[in-house]
């Protein structure tokens, strides 16, 4: 079986698809993964064959409409048009990717296409070449608004295929555990989250517990954005008052700047799957894969969602009792202090985090889901 995985425009998109892609490869199937050209090294870094889906850099695709006019980017992530803007540029990415990926599909003839939640090129190519397509999602993201924005941007491509809107996938795969999945979410094939991210040579402190409590603070693969960097910096300032070791997994450029301001912290590209079992708490931007990795390790979370599309997911984890969530307008020294104290001192948060970790561990493995793909392709 030949499988083409189509990843979205962030490293987390690649990390989310990689466990299933790796399992399919381990089962003897041929697997390619496409990604924007800037991210092909992330694909090869997790051991998968990479295809560059773009020739234009992502910054240009974000900034310019297909008409050549500048894209209006709302300054405020809470602006009603921000989700639509996100959908528009995802649509442009899909349209641009079709040129190269159409050549791949025509020459290689995959038996199925697997795309991230907003990798719309997978849906269009699967319809054009009459092969099954699978949407692989994670956490409770706002997808409806994004889909609508993308459909508007992809009007020419949809019309060429005789479509009025994007078609539904033949299969939805979701690694969000049932306990924190929205009640109205579409039926999906469950898949266990298996942390798979860029690694580095390990040092003993990364996988051993320190004498003090350890708190991880991260903005994930998006830490270089100004909102997430400012968030990390403000949290470190507040955490220095606690008797805890602060560890910040972050890209090198962010780590260097944080070291300059806070020489006492550990910062750098630290594999989260290695670090997390040694932590007592994680403070992060409500990234889906970061949260799942923490949950799998039974670590309580302070969630600080900046974008509206991830706030529902953060609320569901907090309602379950494994986290506290603070919206941007709720973040102040008093609220953060109270949340940190509760998460570190109240054992019920740790208990609920362990409950959630056990539920994740009981979900079908990526190897089991490969059998589902085999059946779908055969039919």
From TrEMBL:
Highest taxon listed in the record's lineage = Bacteria
Start and end residues of each Erythromycin biosynthesis protein CIII-like N-terminal domain: 23-220
Q: Which UniProt keywords apply?
A: Transferase
**What range(s) does the Erythromycin biosynthesis protein CIII-like C-terminal domain occupy?**
235-376
- List the SUPFAM superfamilies hit by this protein, alphabetically: UDP-Glycosyltransferase/glycogen phosphorylase
Instruction: Return the Pfam families for the record.
Output: EryCIII-like_C, EryCIII-like_N
- Its recorded name reads Glycosyltransferase
Q: Which organism is it from?
A: Streptomyces lunalinharesii
């Amino acid at each position: 079986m030949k499988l083409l995985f189509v990843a979205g425009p962030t490293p987390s998109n690649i990390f989310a698809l990689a466990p299933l892609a790796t399992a399919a490869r381990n089962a003897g199937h041929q697997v390619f993964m496409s990604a924007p050209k800037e991210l092909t090294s992330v694909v090869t870094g997790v051991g998968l064959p990479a295809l560059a889906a773009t020739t234009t850099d992502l910054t240009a695709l974000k900034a310019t409409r297909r008409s050549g006019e500048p894209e209006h980017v709302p300054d405020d992530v809470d602006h009603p048009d921000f989700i639509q803007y996100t959908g528009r540029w995802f649509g442009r990415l899909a349209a641009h990717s079709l040129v190269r990926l159409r050549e791949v599909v025509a020459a290689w003839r995959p038996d199925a296409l697997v795309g991230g939640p907003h990798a719309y090129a997978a849906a269009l190519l699967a319809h054009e070449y009459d092969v099954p397509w699978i949407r692989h999602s994670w956490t409770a993201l706002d997808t409806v608004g994004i889909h609508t924005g993308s459909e508007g941007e992809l009007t020419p491509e949809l019309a060429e295929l005789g479509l009025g809107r994007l078609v539904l996938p033949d299969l939805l795969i979701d690694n969000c555990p049932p306990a924190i999945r929205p009640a109205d979410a579409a039926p999906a094939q469950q898949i266990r989250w298996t942390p798979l991210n860029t690694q580095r040579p390990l040092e003993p402190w990364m996988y051993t517990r320190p004498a003090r409590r350890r708190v991880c603070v991260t903005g994930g693969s998006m830490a270089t954005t100004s909102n997430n960097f400012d968030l990390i910096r403000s949290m470190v300032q507040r955490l220095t008052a606690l008797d805890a070791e602060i560890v910040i997994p972050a890209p090198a450029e962010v780590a260097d700047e944080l070291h300059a301001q806070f020489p006492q912290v550990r910062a750098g590209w630290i594999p989260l799957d290695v670090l997390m079992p040694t932590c007592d708490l994680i403070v992060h931007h409500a990234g889906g894969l970061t949260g799942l990795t923490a949950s799998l390790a039974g670590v309580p979370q302070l969630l600080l969602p900046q974008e509206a599309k991830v706030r529902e997911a953060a609320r569901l984890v907090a309602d379950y009792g494994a986290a506290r969530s603070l919206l941007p307008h709720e973040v102040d020294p008093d609220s953060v202090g109270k949340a940190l104290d509760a998460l570190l001192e109240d054992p019920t948060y740790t208990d609920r985090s362990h409950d959630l970790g056990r539920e994740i561990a009981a979900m079908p493995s990526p190897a089991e889901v490969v059998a589902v793909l085999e059946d779908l392709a055969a039919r």
